[in-house]
Amino acid sequence: MDHETKRATQSAERYGSLLLLALSALVAGVAAGLVGALFRISLARADQLRNTLVKWSHDGGVPGFLLVSVTCATATGIAAWLVRRFSPQASGSGIPHVEAVLKQELLPAAFRLIWVKFLGGLLSIGSGLALGREGPSVQMGASLGHLVGKVFRRGWPDCRVLLAAGAGAGLATAFNAPIAGAVFVLEELVRRFETRIAIAALGASATAISVAWLFLGNAPEFRVGALPYPSSEARALFFILGAVTGVVAVVYNNALLRTLTVADRLWRWPVELRAALTGAGVGMLAWFAPGLVGGGDLLTQNTLSGAVTLGVLPLVFLLRFGLGAVSYSARTPGGLFAPILVLGAQLGLLFGDLCRLTFPGLDLPPEAFAVVGMAAFFTGAVRAPITGIVLITEMTASFTMLLPMLGACFVAMLVPTVLGNAPIYDLLRERAQPQEQREAGAYHENDAA
User: Fold this and answer.
1) Which fold has domain 16-219?
2) Which tens digit of pLDDT belongs to each residue from 155-204?
3) What are the pLDDT digits (tens) for 387-438?
4) What is the reported pLDDT for 431?
5) CB within 8 A of 289, min separation 6: which ones?
6) How far apart are CA 130 and CA 171, in angstroms?
7) Least buried of 28, 363, 411, 414, by fewest C-beta within 10 Å?
8) Which residues contact 225 (CB under 8 A, 6 or more apart)?
9) In contact, 247 and 408? CB cutoff 8 Å
């Protein structure tokens, strides 16, 4: 075979492999979109069931109060048992585990993680724990992408690409944000631009959101009134908001880790008991204030609508701040994105209300600061500003806030970096790795061979 023929053959094989990878990514997106949409629908039904139970239990007095607490405790205990018994990697958000697998620091989880994450997330979030649906959606999407790679008999390099693309498709489905899903893969999961991963991530997110729209519709996640472009004077306030959210994000990251440390000191207690106690506490809170528990979508919507008054806003913020850390320490399936967005919206609205009192002539509604606060707080905690800006823009359709988001996220990323605080998923990944097996190298070498 002459040199030109050999080059042509190699080129054909390379492009053929890329086309097969692209096709696999489309299939992975369909799977992630279908599972993610069913997960969202199931969570909505679980929230309705919990609220109905709480409302009905008020007629029963103390027995009703105990019924709600015991039900929530049982659900979270079962979720923790599923994780411990069948798939320990399904604990918590799952995003740190996906990142570690992509870095070849840990083995991919067995495919039974998909149903464990689905049922465990449904039980824990449905019982009222302040956890997000995006963590399970991302990890299930990653496992589905890896599964598609195995079905198509691809080696580890392509399975790795499909795993990352499936994770992005999961995020796209969780928040109805397809562009953010693809950006999340490049900015947060692999942290560099890889052509093959970019192609796969775009394709997977596109098919995932197309499938999800069949079940969920295509409206933005949150309804936000028309927001005017801020004046030059008002734009300066968003830099201050970025600094505030950056500092609070550092406190949040540290509080989350310290809560996990305290929970680990109770290691002699079975993990199911720890989760059940957390669930019981959340059930008690749900009986008195059902709107404060769960993933927090309704709370975020009320915040973005300005329906939360200044008098109760600090208390609600503090309750959700503590509830998020305690919920995550239960080690049941559930993510951090949604609780972070709740806190960011509340912090932004509080800042906007104070600015309105300080500057009565301010021609910008406090809800504008709530929108920007979501992106800024996300950036401060996760350190993924582009993902945060795109995600909040897609979720709220508030395109007039792009420039304020840019300024606020700049400062929100600068402050934690200067203070030496690492991104939350880096901290969680480093914390979890000593508890996991480190045999990825041999696995990938054998698989590639």
Assistant:
1) Clc chloride channel (1.10.3080)
2) 999 999 999 999 999 999 999 999 999 999 999 999 889 899 999 999 99
3) 999 999 999 999 999 999 999 999 999 999 999 999 999 999 888 766 554 3
4) 81
5) none
6) 18
7) 363
8) 305, 365, 367
9) no
Would you list the DSSP string of 364-404? S-HHHHHHHHHHHHHHHHH--HHHHHHHHHHHH--GGGHHH
Which letter does DSSP use for residue 186 in this model? I
Q: Give the contacts of 396 (CB within 8 A, at least 6 positions apart).
A: 220, 221, 222, 224, 304, 371, 374
- Rounded Cα gap, residues 126 and 221, in angstroms: 19
Look-up of token digits 């795109």 = 390
Give DSSP secondary structure letters for 241-258.
HHHHHHHHHHHHHHHHHH
Domain made up of 232-434: CATH architecture: Orthogonal Bundle (1.10)
Asked if residue 5 has pLDDT above 90, the reply is: no
Q: What is the pLDDT of residues 217-235, one digit of tens each?
A: 988 999 998 899 988 888 8
* Distance in angstroms (rounded) separating the CA atoms of residues 99 and 50: 33
16-219 and 232-434 share one CATH topology?
yes
Per-domain residue ranges for the chain? 16-219, 232-434
Alpha-carbon gap, residue 61 to 79, rounded angstroms: 28
pTM: 0.91
The whole-chain average pLDDT of the chain stands at 90
Closest CA to 384 of 415, 325, 428, 424: 424
302 burial via Cβ count (<10 Å: 0-12, 13-18, 19+): middle
- Two tokens, residue 222: 């949150």
Which of 17-21, 147-151, 391-395, 413-417 shows the lowest mean pLDDT across its residues? Answer: 17-21
Using alpha carbons only, give the angle 245, 249, 252 rounded to the nearest 5 degrees.
140
To the nearest 10 degrees (0 to 180), the angle between helices 113-126 and 3-57 is 30
